[in-house]
Amino acid sequence: MVKAYKQEHVYKHPWERVSAASWRKFADPENKRILSHILEVDTLNRKLDADTGKLHTTRALTIHAPGPWFLHRIIGQDICHCVESTVVDGKSRSMQLTTKNITLKKFIEVEERIRYDPHPENPLAWTVCSQETSIRIKPLSALASMAEKVEQKCAEKFMQNSVKGREVMERICRYMEAEAAPV
User: Chain-wide mean pLDDT for the chain?
Assistant: First the structure.
């Protein structure tokens, strides 16, 4: 069974500011308090494709593993490592992020896709964020009947963390807007 959900959010900030805020989301000490499930973020690779002008970045994320405490006890760890692949196309003003777990895959598979694009109704001032997340608990003989409940708990936690992420993005955008304002 797979638990999947989609969310959409409109930032009342231009795409350039929102995409820049996305890069700063994990770096600010204030954000680390809010996004406490993110333990570490390291850039593994960054490449600008000269032919297309697209920026390709790969980052490693270390997070508190999703799921209830009893699942952590069964699998023996509460840390999960993920890989985030990002493609930024400045020409079309699009930023796409895909994050997948690379550890705990025999127990859970999570894939999150986020896309930032100019809002169709106000492309110069607003940005639409589309997020799709899928969570699949692999049946364990002892937990087969609980897999759906565990997926639901994981999905709820991801949705809570998504709200925190949007709050952080909004705060960074407001800060960047204030920095850019004429004095």
Answer: 86
